[in-house]
Amino acid sequence: MAQHIGKQTVIFSKPPIITHTHSSVGPKEADGPMGEYFHTRFADEINEEKSWEKAECSIIKHTIKQLLRLSHTQPTEIDYLLSGDLQNQINATHLGVKDFHIPLFGLYGACSTMGEAMGLGAILVGTGLAKKVISGASSHYCTAERQFRFPLEYGGQRTQTQQWTVTGCGYVMIEQEGTGPTINSITTGKIVDFDIKDVMNMGAVMAPAAVDTILTHLQDTNQKPTDYDAIVTGDLGNCGIEIAIDMADRLGVDLSPVMHDCGAMMYAQERQDTHSGGSGCGCSASMFSSYWYLQLLKRKYKKMLLVPTGALMNLVSTQQSENIPGIAHAVSISAPEQVISDKIQRFHLAP
Amino acid sequence: MAQHIGKQTVIFSKPPIITHTHSSVGPKEADGPMGEYFHTRFADEINEEKSWEKAECSIIKHTIKQLLRLSHTQPTEIDYLLSGDLQNQINATHLGVKDFHIPLFGLYGACSTMGEAMGLGAILVGTGLAKKVISGASSHYCTAERQFRFPLEYGGQRTQTQQWTVTGCGYVMIEQEGTGPTINSITTGKIVDFDIKDVMNMGAVMAPAAVDTILTHLQDTNQKPTDYDAIVTGDLGNCGIEIAIDMADRLGVDLSPVMHDCGAMMYAQERQDTHSGGSGCGCSASMFSSYWYLQLLKRKYKKMLLVPTGALMNLVSTQQSENIPGIAHAVSISAPEQVISDKIQRFHLAP
To answer: Are the beta carbons of B315 and A88 separated by less than 8 Å?
Structure first.
């Protein structure tokens, strides 16, 4: 039912189906150019909780609850939950999902976590070991900012290469049966280290990893970039996407006709002061679960390669002048054979 | 080749084989009652590095290098690496493994990470998606102490329920072909929350999760505790193991004849001042890769259930008075059909 091909790719003979998604974002993301695509738009980042950390947990909980409710699924029907986030020890995930009592694989791949979660979820479903799984990832601007950088109140200046951590999350249901876009193959990334230490330039860290995974995927599956309608990286941002296209070009591969980046799409650069764009696990997670999923349902894009990208560091490692390596995991997704109208409807009906 | 049975269990018709292991520990663990079983015993916790964090990375790197060297395996032959640790954003893993260039699934399950890594590794091998994987986990007393608790120099008093984070790690090679103990089934745990907030009593947090996973495993596989020669939890410690036996007893299951705990075994309680025992991802990882693996090779224990246990919290969540839930993942392992003398030799030859 599934087979390892080439160097790093698993291909599915009975492709797992992404039957449902739910995305939730904060006010800044809702105010951006993608705002209308998100299912739940929270009015503020605190979501009536006592702390930002608690707010992130509550957003995760809400998102999974909505995913279960709208798919008429009980938590007991879900075989596995695969999820991660940026809070230390992925604690937003743990406190956000604990009340669903679903067997959990806790994951950490920095902002590539959505790719890892969808990849392992597809393996569990594609090998017949699970009927239904939920995969997802979350991030929150305020929890990330104070954990990785400065207290928000400090009002630190940001360099032009810096990105804005997305407040939001996306969770998808992957099933053996049902209707929706299908996962045809996944390519699991290796850590790529280009000796970068600049914590203000995550795009430069992640671009080499994205290129490594994309080119390996194309080689493993014997495809060229234009076999995809879209190759969509997670959060390279405006700086990183240019680096990635340039790097691939020097390696003889022209990604430019099909390349998109969730981070570069998330905010209106000219009025939202987000510099190089969006970042965080929740960036590709929320963007795939909303805009990209809708494009697939509508068959506007018939085949996409989702490539969430992560920068591997923590506060101590950067203070100790360690390198920041990157990683990227690719998920190859096809549109359903027919436009699925009732699932498209959900995008207008969502609260 | 693999099948989902009962509520949370995957059973393998062609069981993946644990062909090789390597364990590395610090001086306190080497000085404990299990000291002679570990493959590499570092003379101090800093391992000639500039920081404890770098030391942990170097110990991981050394351990995987030894595992590859002694099994005559090139990194390119390994399909996947599955690993995690306790440093924020599992950064010890990232910096420790990056130079091997192996596709990586980064995991976080607190001290249950070894169970998660071996479980997912067994799935990849058992479904034929990988020929060889490496699974492992790491922890370090000094990095954990200053990250989760107090600066070491502070010399804080410790309660009797507290445990001592193990400096050490264990990595295992899981393969389709070869000789060694086999993984027959795995049971993936759910988060169990007993409303505990006491960060000084992780045994109490993890015991309910251990009992939940063990009882689910026995039910899913239609077995009783004594069908195992040993049920070995990760790091419940002296307090936690008593709670677990008592809880199971109240639920009508007598675990006492077969119950062991890596945390309770790690140190000499009477002279090493470790109170409730060892803890950390590296506790069950190093103990399984050394003592328990050797017992299986010698067929002293013919069937064991390894149940690494984790407490899900971070520094901020405990400061915000959040509950600390637990999780545990079970791996059912059988001894090889014959005593494997050459692999037993390694335990005496190891540097």
So the answer is: yes
Q: How far is CA A240 from the centre of its chain?
A: 16
CB atoms within 10 A of CB B253: 17
Residue A351 has pLDDT above 90, yes or no: no
Q: Tens of pLDDT along A60-87?
A: 999 999 999 999 999 999 999 999 999 9
Return the H-helix or E-strand segment holding B33.
none
State the best of A88, A187, A213 to mutate against chain B, taking most chain B CBs within 10 Å.
A88
Query: Who contacts A44 (Cβ-Cβ below 8 Å, separation ≥6)?
Result: A26, A27
| Whole-angstrom distance, CA of residue B117 vs CA of residue B123 | 10
Q: What is the pLDDT of residue A256?
A: 98
CB contact under 8 A, B106 and A103: no
Q: pLDDT tens across B310-329, in order?
A: 999 999 999 999 999 999 99
CA distances from A124 to A133, A304, A332, B218 (A): 8, 21, 16, 22
pTM, rounded to two decimals:
0.98
* Amino acid (one-letter) located at B62: H
Burial of residue A55 (CB within 10 Å: 0-12, 13-18, 19+) is: buried
Residues of A in contact with B107 (CB under 8 A): 105-108
- C-alpha–C-alpha distance, residues A320 and A38, integer Å: 39
The pairing of strands B9-12 and B164-165 is unpaired
**CA count, 13 A, side-chain hemisphere, B185:** 23
| B103 to chain A: closest CA residue | A190
Contacts of A10 in chain B (CB under 8 A): 129
Confidence (pLDDT) at A155: 85
Question: Considering CB atoms only, which of A51, A90, A129 is closest to B2?
Answer: A129
DSSP symbols for B36-102: GG-SEE-SSSSTTSSSHHHHHHHHHHHHHHHHHHHTT--GGG--EEEEEESSGGGHHHHHHHGGG--
CB contact (8 A) between residue A129 and residue B3:
yes
pLDDT of residue A1: 86
Q: In Å, how far is A339's CA from the nearest CA of chain B?
A: 32
To the nearest whole Å, the CA of A46 is away from the closest chain B CA by 15
- Classify B218 as helix, strand or coil: helix
- Chain B residues within an 8 Å CB radius of A102: 190
Quote the radius of gyration of chain A (alpha carbons, Å): 18
Rounded to the nearest 10 degrees, how much is the dihedral formed by the CA atoms of A314, A317, A322, A324? 0
Rounded Cα distance, B84 and B78, in Å: 17
Distance CA B40, CA B58 (A): 13
> What is the ipTM score, two decimals?
0.98
> Considering only CB atoms, which chain A residues are within 8 Å of B91?
312-314, 316-317, 322
For residue B305, give the 3-state DSSP assignment: strand
* Portion 305-344 of A in contact with B at CB < 8 A: 312-317, 320, 322-323, 325, 327
Number of C-beta neighbours around residue B323 at 10 A = 17
Q: Do residues A253 and A217 lie in contact, with contact meaning Cβ atoms separated by under 8 Å?
A: no
| Chain A residues touching residue B50 (CB < 8 angstroms) | 320
Q: Do A105 and B188 touch (CB under 8 A)?
A: yes
The 8-class DSSP code of residue B292 comes to I
Q: Is B137 on the interface with A (CB under 8 A)?
A: no
Nearest chain B residue to A131 by CA distance is B4
pLDDT of residue B1: 86
pLDDT band at residue A129 using 50, 70 and 90 as cut-offs: very high
